[in-house]
Amino acid sequence: MSRHLDHAGRPLVAVTGIGIVTSLGSGRAENWRRLIAGESGIHPITRFPTEGLSTRIGGTVDWLEPDGTGSQCVTRALAFTAANEAVAEARLEGGIGGPLFLAAPPVELEWPQRMALTGNGGIEPGRAYTSESLLKPVGSPRHDAIYDAIQFGTIGDDLADAFGVTGVPVTLSTACASGATAIQLGVEAIRRGESNRALVIGADGSMTAEALIRFALLSALTTHNDPPHKASKPFSKNRSGFVMAEGAAALVLETLESAEARGAVIHGLVLGCGDKADDFHRTRTSPDGGPAIAAIRNALADAGLDETGIDYVNAHGTSTPENDKMEHLALSTVFGPRIAEIPVSSNKSMIGHTLSAAGAVEAAFSLLSLQHGVLPPTINHDEPDPAIPLDVVPNVARKAAIRTVLSNSFGFGGQNTCLVLGRNPL
What we know:
Blueprint: E1 13-22, E2 25-26, H1 28-36, E3 43-44, E4 57-58, H2 71-90, E5 100-103, H3 111-117, H4 131-135, H5 141-149, H6 154-163, E6 170-172, H7 178-191, E7 197-204, H8 209-217, E8 247-255, H9 256-261, E9 268-277, H10 290-303, E10 312-314, H11 321-335, E11 344-345, H12 348-351, H13 358-372, E12 374-375, E13 398-399, E14 404-411, E15 415-422
Parallel strand pairs: 5-6, 5-7, 10-11, 10-14
Antiparallel strand pairs: 1-2, 1-8, 1-9, 3-4, 7-8, 9-15, 12-13, 14-15
Helix pairs in contact: 7-13, 10-11
C-alpha cells in the first residue's frame, strides 16, 4: 500500500495551513505561546453594558475592527483573520482550488438591526409588508445592508470570492460541534476524490447581550466574575458553568501526496472522524454518554485504531457540571482503566467556549501539540473532582512525544463529532 493512503486505501489528509484567533491573541504563534504558558484570555465584557447581568465576563476578541456592527460582522472578521493566516502559510498562489466548509453560528435579527428597521425611513404605520419587502425594499441601502447581514451564507460567499474555492461554499451549524464537523466534511470531500484540498473554517462572534442572557437562563454560564481568569474550571469539583467566548480557526486540508509533491509544510494528519447524533434533549446530552461514546468509537474506527491508539485527549471540557461528568463517562467507557494514563487537556480553561468555532480551534491546538511535543495545561485545576479521575495536565504545560490526539466536540442537542489527529510521519 502507498504511504499516501490510509488503512482503508483512502488518501491520507494532511494539514498544510493553520490560522487561529482567540481571546489570547491573533495568529498561531501568539495563541500557542500564551496557551502553553497557561495564560487566560477571559476578561470583563466592555462591548455592551453588563449591569444587572449575572455573568459579566467572556472571551471577547476586542482588538478586531469588524466592517460594521453586529455578531455577523464580528464572525466575518474572525473568519477572514484566521483564513488569511492559514492560506498564506499554505502557499497556494492560485487559490485553494477546492471546496470551502464554514462552521458559523445561526443568524437572526439583532436588536440594533430591529431598531434600525423601525427608525427614520423604516416601517411605515398602516402599510402592509412582506418579509422580502420589509428586509430589502428597493432603494434603501440601510435595509440592503441588514438583509445581507442576516443571510446565513453571506460570510461563506465572501470567503469563496477571496480565496479561490470551487463549487458552492457550504455554511453549516451543528451547535458546539460545528468546527469539527467542518473539518470532517473537508476530509470526506478529499477522500472521495472531489478535490486535492479544501479550506475549513470555524468562526463565532456571537457574543451579544441577548446571547449571554439566553445561556444564563439555561443555567449554563458561570457567574464567577471575579477574578475572570479563574472562572473556567473544567473537571474541577467547584466548576460552575462555561465562559462564553469568540474565536476562529482555519485549516487548509490537502492530500499528503499533493502536499509532499509541492514541498508544503505539513503540520499533521487528520486520521479519523466520527459523529453520532443524540435526540435525548434540546440542550442536554444523554446521561448514559451513549452518543458521545459512539462518536469516539466511530472516530477511532475511521482512523483504523483501537482504544490503545490514542496518546492524548483534547477534551470538550466545558466546565459545566453535567458535560464534564458525561465526557469522563464516555472516555472511561471507551478506554477503560487506561484512561488514567492518557493525559487530557481542556483549552476552554484559558480561551473559554468559542461555540461554533470550538471544534476547529481545538483541532488546531491539537495539531500544534503534535508538532511541538507540548501538552497545554488545564488551568484553575486546584480542586480536583474525585468523581472524575483524569490526568488533566493540571495548571502547567507538559512535554510529551505524542503520535495521536483525540479531539472531542459535544454540542447542544446531542450533536457530537470527534477527530483523530496524527503526527507526520506517524
